[in-house]
Amino acid sequence: MLRALPLAGLLACGGPAGPPEDPADCPDAACREAWAVGRYEADPRRVAELVRDLPDPVERVALVSRLVEAFPGETAALCGALEAGPARKRCEELNQRPHLRAPLPEPGRPLDARATPAGAKVPAENADAGDAADDSTPRLVDVDGRAWPPPFPDLAPREVSCADSRNACQSLAAREAATRADAEGAAAACLAVPDEKWRYECFFQSAEQLLRSRKAGHLRLSRMDAVVALCRGAGPYLGRCLTHVQSEVAGLAPPANREAPADWARVRRAVEALAGALAPVDADLAADLADQTWAQALRLSYATAERVVGTPLRWLPEAAVPHVRAAAAWALVGRSHERDPDLAAWVGRVAEALADRSSTPGERHPGRVRAPRDLWRAPRPEELDAELVRTVHYLGEARRLRAPEEAEDLALCVLEGAALADPPRRELLAAARDDPRPRVAWTARRLAERLREAGSR
């Protein structure tokens, strides 16, 4: 279905009959814009020809900006028609942001789209949701910030002079302010973006830009309060914005076998700064965000480590320990060709590796840096007593059960790693199905079930 043209576009082309069949018959730029937007879905090649043939580079930039905003994710081929510079960069970036393809969701409370906080019981309404909810555990990326108080309540919008689309001009001004570490300047420019969707995206991109220092590979950790404030201005994209920020923080983690106290101190400060900036608004979400960040950071650390050792435990806080266990077991089981179905033996191997706190220099291991698939499913009441259900994030966004005793927690981590191995260690899961520890037995059965489901799809 073609998108409806704005009335102004129709009038610019001579009335409600709409633009002419041939854009060469258009009297002005407004008519050509209306023609291009109306034709793009049906005939993108012809629209691309019009864009390339425009003699005025200013009109070309404005038309591409309008098309990118109307068809985000579908206009990458037009970016090459622009000269290198901010407009072309914006075109390329917006075509790589899939959330822009969907219409804005209906407003919802942040609690409606939040994963279970780390260490909390899985709520009964989630646990009893049945198979339909198994694959839809709420995620951080879905958190909607529109119900929260505005982050810049007393700030006036700041319009800039503009020859491009107003959305594009204001967004560019906001990014330039964020590059200078001027959070309020960025917010003021974003507040003047006329279109709601692009206003939220302006805040989202400004937060990302503010976090990144001019110096490659460095983050402005001292500005985390302002980064989170800009994320809060991103409305329905709040969760996605926070996810991008926490991924940048997690990326600071060094390989686990390195002697890196300064690097780990930096990661710790970054996690604390991120959670601390969010805690005054939502303490539970802040705790969950910190837990997910540690989970992802340790996954990256062990994915790139030459050896599986417990070296990071020399410097990490207690909150990170469950994630060291999980990432170490994942790496050790995944790299091994051993098919031993003895869970206790595997727990012993992981414990022995973690007891080794030595460090070695060397290149990064070419490990699995991408997030593994999520095999979590919340327990149903008939499967596991509620008092046994404590969860933490697993290697990132996913979740796993956590046990208070180290040996049992390591067993849970080994099973999770066995399910993600290539190929999965199904014999290890099968042997643990009747383990006398309820959490361990349930985890083995859940993972085996998830692998069967994945194989049938």
Explain how this protein is built.
With about 450 residues, the chain is mostly helical. The chain has a domain at about 5-85 and about 90-100. It is about 50% helix and about 0% strand. Strands 1-2 form a two-stranded antiparallel ribbon. Strand 1 and strand 2 (about 400) form a beta hairpin. The longest helix has 21 residues, at about 285-305. The relative contact order is 0.08.
In short:
By secondary structure, this protein is mainly alpha-helical.
Oligomer: single chain
End-to-end C-alpha gap: 31 Å
The ordered H/E elements are HHHHHHHHHHHHHHHEEHHH
Shape: elongated
List its traits.
single chain, 457 residues, mainly alpha, elongated
Compile the SSE list and pairings.
Blueprint: H1 7-12, H2 29-39, H3 44-53, H4 57-70, H5 86-94, H6 124-127, H7 166-179, H8 183-191, H9 196-211, H10 224-232, H11 238-250, H12 261-278, H13 283-303, H14 321-335, H15 343-355, E1 391-394, E2 398-401, H16 406-420, H17 426-431, H18 438-456
Antiparallel strand pairs: 1-2
